[in-house]
Amino acid sequence: MLEVQSIISILFVTLGIVFMLMGSIGILRLPDFYSRTHAVSKSDTLGVFFVIIGLIVYEGFTLSSGKLFLIVLFIALSNPIGTHALARAALKKGLKPLLHDDKKGGES
Amino acid sequence: MENFFLYSAVVLTIIIAIPLIRVVKGPTIFDRLLATNAIATKTIVLICLIGFLYGRIDMFIDITLAYAILGFVGVLAIAKYFSSPKVRRNA
Q1: Closest Cβ opposite residue B75 in set A55, A82, A107
Q2: Which chain B residues are within 8 Å of A64, Cβ to Cβ?
Q3: Cα separation of A101 and A105, whole Å?
Q4: Interface confidence (ipTM) of the complex
Q5: Is residue B53 part of a domain?
């Protein structure tokens, strides 16, 4: 029983770390501010979700696992809200999105 | 199992260090804020892993909750500040 729990936990944590690595590479590689918000909001939220689900499976059914589940809920609510607030502030401030017919392309 | 938590914490530290490049060279101020938000989100997971590594998750989980709320409120406050029309600073 304990071995099955450990194997499932290792699988979930590794999957979540892979998703967070994708998010970090996306922050570096994507050409525009508005496309970088996708890398932060979506893949980071999914990575945190998978890692903490794996930790809940390893912990079992205790009070700490309930608090970890509350952390998952809070991050799934708060991370897209924060990213959306930043994107809306940038749009109000007049930051132009990179369109398809721009000739010069983005900066790295 | 403690070895696995140790290795994943080390890999996660390297992953956290990658958006610092975007913080240093980001063209606009919103890029820097976005990368800072990403670092704050991943630090939550790192604190959870450190709690499992020390075997005292019941203490570290409260630190994690407080850190999550601090990061969220900080990002919202800074976004609200920069979207105000009275701020003269260029983006």
Answers
A1: A82
A2: 57-58, 61
A3: 9
A4: 0.85
A5: yes
